[in-house]
Amino acid sequence: MPPSSLRVVYAFAREMHPKTTDVFIQYGTAGFRTKASLLEHVVYRMGLLAVLRSRVKNGRTIGIMITASHNLEPDNGVKLIDPDGEMLEQSWEEIATRLANVSDNDLESTTGEIIKQVNADMSLKASVFIGMDTRYTSPRLAAAAVHGVMALKGTAKEFGIVTTPMLHFCVKCRNDNTYGTPSEEGYYEKIVGAFKNICQKLPVVGKYNTTLYVDGANGVGGKKLNIIKKTLDGELDLVLYNLGGNGGKLNLNCGADFVKVSQKPPVGVEHVPFQRVASLDGDGDRLVYYYLDDKNDMHLLDGDRIAILLASYITELLKACGASVSVGLVQTAYANGASTRYITDDLKIPVTCVKTGVKHLHHAALSYDIGIYFEANGHGTVVYSGHAKDSIRRVADEGDTEQRKSAQLLLNFIDVTNETVGDAISDLFLVETVLRARGISIQDWEKQYTDLPCRQLKVTVQDRNAISTADAERQCTAPEGLQTKINELVSRYPSGRSFVRPSGTEDVVRVYAEADTQESADKLAAEVAQAVFDLAGGVGKRPEL
Length: 545
Ligand code: G16
Prior knowledge:
The protein is an alpha/beta fold.
């Protein structure tokens, strides 16, 4: 493409997607996220960037997902997906931020500069897959992304409403046809097909109950499970709630984030004591389980529990097949201290702690033959190296009868996994597989270990970037004095632990605390929140004890 044709980049911007705000926006934990009304120009520009990224990757397909995932309905967001279905390479986040914030008048020249900087060959073809969640603002934003792709002569393919992990899966399949077929149907065929396959090998035994209630967060995940439900041949009886009808609002008092953070059951679900419930988030990339007991008390089984359940089953099968494959687990500072102890002391599996954000966990998990990564909020998956897959395949071909059986199960388990990113639907089928294989109930699952009581809070400050952290976000390096204050507060509580960090998806500072009793965890969290408010420029009402 000759340089003069970049003029169209400006023309599209000025006529259709002008930048109408001076609010600075940053590529955060999972892309750009803010009020939907501030995003149209950003999404258009991400259409431009996706084309450049595709050309730098020799024409391989890049994804653009329009979603604000767990955020409430008025927000929206956009993130780019790299060719292997993983999050955008971190060095490009800065470029994305730069492109998103320049004025319309500087857009043409900045685009030209970025083309030079990344050495994009503009004569190559470029391919971009675009998906969106169910927000009413998503179609308009998806159209802006298409215009961005058109402006730089790329080819856009729209997937309409899909879960975020489905788009990651399709991008991966488009660039690596051994992984699957790049379509929603291809996703069902591989992931749901493998689950049904496993069910044929695992008869229902013991206390496992094939009925599963689901809280769909009034988002896209529940809608897709409604399609899947009809194809499960009775292997799993999904009872779906919060599918977006009856005035239910996306993520409002429901969904995985609400359930995890508030430690309360979602509205809109008809609860039955001890019935296990799976709660998804708005774009279907997070999953937590819970049940209410006969006193109506809530029992939460979060991402830490899911990780442990999957890790213990995988290591059990690996042992049975005699395959020599390393297994490791990746968590963040939000992981409950009791879970980390259980993994290290009882399961004897190595644990790595990294910064919040699936991109960090995914990267760390790749250093193991089999890496299991989960954030406590229910965002995670399992990644299997080529070596791991080859070793298991070899046992499936050459092992004795028992070894072959375990290896076959493991190969099916791998196919149920969406290895590209955390995926609530795939994770749900993985969890159900393990519960079914072991013939256990959700209460049995919960008995593996006892969580330390914990609490999460949010504090609004003038500028959340005033908070800096180090050591996988476990230490606060600015503002001065805050970490000393946190240490002092923590030292007053047995088993106390607390940290603070700026959110990358909402305009808040997050506070986490755990201690030996719920009362202490609540009090410690409130005291640390007050310290953040006082030392980091809190706005509005000071948090109360
Ligand atoms: C996103 C990220 C997660 C992260 C969460 C909260 O989730 O993908 O890795 O844990 O945001 O991030 P923060 O604390 O920085 O706001 P989702 O489900 O909203 O895409």
